[in-house]
Amino acid sequence: MSETIRRWLKHANWLRLARGALAVPLLAAAAFYGWTALSNAQGPVHLQVYAFSTQEEALSQGIYPAFERAWEAETGRDLTIEGVFGASATLAGQINLGAPADVAIFSNAQHVTHLKVGRRVRGNTEPVAVAQTPMVIVTRPGNPWRIDSFEDLAQPGLRLLHADPRSSGAGQWAVLAESGSALLETGDPAAAGDRLMSIWQNVHLLGTSARSAMALFELGAADAFVTYEQDALLALERGTDLHVVVPQRTIIAQHVAVLVDDNIKLYERAAAQAFVQYLAGPEAREIWVQYHIRPATNGGEAFAPLAQPFTVDDLGGWSTAYAELIEGLWMAEIEPLVELRAGPSLLDLGE
After folding, report:
1. 138, 232 in Cβ contact below 8 A?
2. Phi, psi at residue 228, to the nearest 5°?
3. Are 63 and 83 within 8 A, CB to CB?
């Protein structure tokens, strides 16, 4: 036998021994993780749900406990849902930076696109429409400025508060309501830009979210602001002294939920999927209505009809509306020209 053949056989024997040695820990690891997955599949589940600020009462007081009971009754497994609440665009940014959300409930579908760009959500994962609410104008009791439409927000001397479109989904929906109403009335993009500019010349103060804007308004920060019908009605219910104006032509804000694929553990996925489906189901619809939120599909008979509602689809869908009206119009042309006045401190407002 030649020396070359002997060296080759010796090398082949070492390869077989090495492969055998590697196979033992790999099999052990596979067995361990398989046992762990099986054990977790029978154990308790903990879900972290990130949701935009105005949904806190409906979710924490109504939907979370109802779904926990339904899941435990069906599967026999304990479930706890931990809620994190904040401005919708801010939450999307936090999730992209690594926040451990299993499910996200956003004020608009554009924030799901942000997660897809950040590779936190798979490209083929579709958000689920769970609820909706029209944008309305909140003003002082008796409506002293005689506000009837978004156009009336441009009256000279009117002090406006606004949810920040950079952080808040409500702020983005408000921009679409303010500009979109003019665009659909006239068919003229220039008219939409003019209306938005004239309204924003009256904006004195920004809130990071719809809920923070409402808190500032309750403390006396402005004459009026645009927000969700749902949050305005909740404020009335808790005794806030305000007047709600529903413009004849207004946009319906459509809210969505999505699985954060990059974060969900294998044993959590069934519960997370069931939770998202539950949000759009009949039991959740009844809870949404209790908190003044219109269901995404039907069950909204308890609410006042809208005269001329429109949706983001009438503006070309979220990708078009965001690019043209939020980035191209508000961020590029209007925000740099708007001089936000130094608002009063919360301490001063509370006096």
Report:
1. yes
2. -75, 140
3. no
pLDDT at 19: 52
pLDDT at 339: 74
Instruction: Give the phi and the psi of residue 37 in degrees, each rounded to 5.
Output: -65, -40
pLDDT (tens digit per residue) in 222-248: 999 999 999 999 999 999 999 999 999
What type of residue sits at position 155?
Q
The per-residue pLDDT for range 41-88, each reduced to its tens digit, is 567 999 999 999 999 999 999 999 999 999 999 999 999 999 999 999
Q: Please answer whether residues 105 and 91 qualify as being in contact, where contact means their C-beta atoms are separated by less than 8 angstroms.
A: no
Residues 6 or more apart whose Cβ sits within 8 Å of residue 97? none
Helices (H), the chain: 3-42, 56-57, 64-75, 88-96, 110-117, 169-186, 189-200, 210-218, 229-237, 269-279, 282-290, 318-321, 346-350
Give the HSE-up count for residue 108: Cα atoms under 13 Å, Cβ half-sphere.
Answer: 29
Which has the closest alpha carbon to 206: 161, 139, 170?
161
* Sequence spans of domains, the chain: 43-131+255-290, 133-252+307-350
Report how far residue 11's alpha carbon sits from residue 212's, in angstroms, rounded to the nearest whole number.
71
CATH number of 43-131+255-290: 3.40.190.10
User: Cα separation of 279 and 260, whole Å?
Assistant: 16
- Pick among 3.40.50.1220, 3.40.190.10, 3.30.43.10, 3.60.15.10: CATH of 133-252+307-350: 3.40.190.10
Task: Pull the structure tokens for residue 115.
Answer: 């997660």
Residue 7, pLDDT above cutoff 90: no
Q: What are phi and psi of 255, to 5 degrees?
A: -100, 145
Q: What does the pLDDT average to over 78-102?
A: 97
Residues 6 or more apart whose Cβ sits within 8 Å of residue 46: 79, 80, 81, 82, 268
